[in-house]
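Running this now, will post back.
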Amino acid sequence: MKKLLVIIALSQWCTFSCRTPPPEKQIIKDEHTAQSETPLSGKELSRKHCQSCHLYPEPSLLDKQTWERSVLPLMGRLFGIYEREVPRSEILKGAIDQPLVKRLNIFPEKQIIDDKTWKMIRDYYVTASPESLPSIKSPDNFPPLERFEIAIAHKAQSAPGTTLLKIDPLTSAIYVGESKGKAGELTILNSEFEVTQTIKLPAPPVDVNLNSDHLDVTLVGSLVLARSNNSLGRLLRILRNPGEEKYSSFRSFMDGLKRPLQTVFEDINGDGHDDILIAEFGYYTGSLTLYESVGGKGSFRKKVLKNVPGAIKLSVTDMNRDGRKDIVALFAQGDESISIFYNNEHGMFREERVLRFSPSNGSVYFELADFNNDGHPDILYCNGDNGDYPPVLKDYHGIHIFQNQGNNNFERVYFFAMNGAYKSSAADFDNDGDLDIIGISHFPDFNASPRQDFVYLENLGDYSFSTQYLVGDLPVRWITFDIHDIDHDGFKDVLLGAFGTYKTRQNKTKPAASVARPSLLYLKNIGR
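Update: finished.
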């Protein structure tokens, strides 16, 4: 399948992408000829070359076929070893910033380890990896979704392509971004799901910041990565005249962004003016970037907080109670991790990595939530991205709670296994004073019945949760959602957004046009 925006484009399994010497200094060293040293085994060589910039990828994390056919060829490219049918020149064509990729020497011109070393590493992974991965055990029964009533809110005329879903907490207006090939659309609906305006955009929108007289819309650039000519993202300001309901003009606010996924407008430096924090996920290159407001007159000073690809989700809050706003960021490519960037005043930040995951984990989302009401934010994290190679069901995909021990050290206290988990959020859906959880999967087990692509976890206390499933399979794939009391009855509802379709068990071909294909699914909280 084609790779979606938030699907990781290249898992950087080995680490020469950040440690490769310049081309003129590259030397291939035969690590097996030194008479005074004991020859290293394939396992020892893999540990030497494949963990200096991320956690070591154990062979058990993937099945034998995936290692051999998908991951190892990608690893080889980072050592300057290319497949005959995919030369270096073809790989570079796909770079968003080709000059930078060349300058960083991410894909070396010359081979930087000898053939024998590479063969031993390859053979070790293929030999030591399992034929298949353990599967997630399905429950004996599937309690149906009793907390919510199901209603299709918005039908798609073709395969749904939702890239953004946000509900205005003040007006209940619904903002839906969609991919239309290389272009995009932003559709605005009222709380009755009636379309009030559709805005054509030059690229798919992935985030929107709501203001009284304008919208700040983040455009990703290339949603689906091509072999060449991938475009940069940008930030648009869409304007409306005072007193008018519809937006009538726009201007480019910021250009040249590397596949941005999230934009946060927040006064981080405390000068009374909003700064702009952008997660530039990128491809081979990317960054976490802060644009500090200069005098509040529309000028900004660029500051790169972390110059790596993979920034995917951000949260801004005071994590150490010093009165200054800190930044919490999830990085989801190569060195998958969650870091806190502590605000040390005067525009300086100190990064502390608080959680680190394997490079095959498939990190996609996190949010902060205080599950035990101790005043310290815990981390609700989910991993289930499965788009780098033919999808492999992984028993370590799912929804996790990491409890804050009071000093921003985090310990996992809960795990719900869920194939292809893509987003999870905490809210009090039953109004009993504690936080429940909902979760969706974009890469469920398509052969399972039911698919288990939406789950409601009701909090029973002490990190114990009961489960309810959306058991009526619809031929669409959930990719996002938002939570809001849409009908104003005092109970929080859920709105799901879909991207793409799938083949139903009953219909092994493309879903028929007569089959309901909602781009939005409204889950109304029954309120009891």
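The first helix runs from residue 16 to 19. More later if anyone needs it.
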